[in-house]
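For homework, think about our next protein:
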Amino acid sequence: MLSASQIALYRDQGYLVVPDVLDAVTLETVRREMARILDGARAVTTHTDMYDLEPGHRPDDPRVRRVKTPHRFFPVFQHLLRHPRLVAVLQDLLGPAVRLHGSKINLKSPRYGSPVEWHQDWAFYPHTNDDLLAVGVMLDDCTSDNGPLLVVPGSHRGPTFDHHAEGHFCGAIDPATIRDEIARAVPLTGRAGSMSFHHVRLLHGSAQNVSSLPRTLLLYEYGAADAWPLMGVSDLADFDARLVTGEPGIEPRLVSAPVRMPLPPARHQGSIYENQSDASRRYFPVTDEPASAPRT
């Protein structure tokens, strides 16, 4: 699926964008399901096991910033996580045996979608080795203005930064400690149907959507099958069921990597948006929605 130069780019820079992985028919099927899911948010008034809501959400005018673990609730996302072209890329980057770690859909409505502060996924779920990555399935065009993922090239080969505030995990890095890294950040843009891949230790974040275009990003997290979470496996049957390729085993591969445990846990446990509400210093501004802007 990938060329030698694409694999080398991922190894060196920690990220890759692969255009047009999904065909038009598959993309339209997923978009129809997304419309149905978002319409279902009219029935909720607070965060649930499925929905994480934007400030200002109303049942008559729903705003959703995250759909949690969509592969557990909706067959279309369970099927998509094993899409042959996606699996081919994963095997090029992670090896022949691959396990799903988790999934979510982050949404940024026009002129409003919430930012995500600078962080490393590795800080949330360190493993016995760092052959893990996140896949961003672009369900809308990702442009430089609608809150694309911003990544710092090569930062996956550096330290694991402190994601704590006042002694508790908060899922965000004090931006004052990574000024030089932020200055090197680049956006991951592409047409709908494209996919981005970023290493679990790569520094990344995303700004508020200031455009008139929506940005819907389906995120799957995968790891090599021999990467085991340092926080433990509470349900071995579920852990094995998340294998995408390969066979179950009980021999983790141990590799030296800088680790900071996400403990004590965040005061506001939940999605990253809730975790980061405790961050003492923030980088991305949040502006009020213009009064003239239509709500979608």
